[in-house]
Structure to design on (282 residues):
DNA sequence: TCAATAGTTTGGAATTATTCTAATGAAAAT
DNA sequence: ATTTTCATTAGAATAATTCCAAACTATTGA
């Protein structure tokens, strides 16, 4: 019963997908459920695939990739490039930056208000700044 | 004559490799020559391999990768992660940041003095900050 | 100087993340 | 209900990178 604000907010998810111009297919609804109903998350395609499997959701890896990219293009996810080996997708699309724990491959958000980059030179002519990414790389000591 | 500061500073290259604890093999000397005798550069393994080929240097791609990583570990190169698809290696190891032209996959240095990051929170306990990377992503407009 | 040792290079196979493809299935439009 | 459009899927294909075992080279010590 009672579909609390988070759990199983299916209608909400469907609206979200529609808003992004995406058909609310079974797979997309279930994946966006996993993605957006657990606070801020940083996941790779493999991680999401695994999580879907655990949850009993049948989705191919190809669809995982498709969906992650579509959501990214729609501005509902942000792709984070910190490790050449894999791509992370961040469900937090607000302004913020990251700590990256290189030893474990873990990302931690740094709220946008706390951090500031000063002195960025003008973008070369013919280009515009799309985003400024800050990655604070950490090592266990 | 004296081997001007740049051109054909073979002895210099050998000393550099020795200093890094690496045997000055033919391949390493030639590759470090390409890397360090042309100012600040940003290259991928494939780019260096190609460049070596052009210069008539016979080296396998495996050795290119080995050498790039060894030089990186020795602190003579800095690996730059801006694109999930490939790794760049930067011959400028001084403090600086980068513009990244996403449309062309090109990196441009931003001198360290010009840019500053303020408000980085303390590193979580048990970790230390290894480096703060700033990437200003550009798009053609 | 030369053999013994330790470290290096190499081609090709192997691995890994990701993308592509063509066929099948499902949602939207008529 | 049917057609049209878009999505999903398994598996093949790609691309960057790493691994491997054999062949080679620098260094060391007699």
């Amino acid at each position: 019963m009672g579909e609390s604000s988070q759990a199983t907010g299916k209608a909400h998810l469907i609206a979200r997908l529609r808003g992004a111009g995406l058909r609310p297919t079974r797979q997309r609804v279930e994946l966006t459920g996993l993605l957006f109903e657990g606070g801020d998350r940083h996941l790779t395609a493999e991680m999401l695939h695994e999580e879907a499997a655990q949850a009993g959701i049948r989705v191919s890896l190809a669809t995982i990739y498709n969906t992650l990219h579509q959501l990214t293009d729609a501005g509902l996810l942000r792709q984070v490039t910190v490790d050449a080996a894999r791509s992370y997708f961040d469900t937090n699309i607000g302004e913020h930056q990251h700590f990256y724990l290189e030893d474990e491959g873990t990302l931690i958000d740094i709220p946008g208000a706390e951090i500031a980059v000063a002195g960025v030179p003008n973008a070369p002519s013919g280009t515009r700044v799309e985003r400024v990414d800050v990655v604070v790389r950490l090592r266990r000591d």
Remarks:
- DSSP finds four helices and seven strands in chain B.
- The first strand of chain B starts at residue 42 and ends at 43.
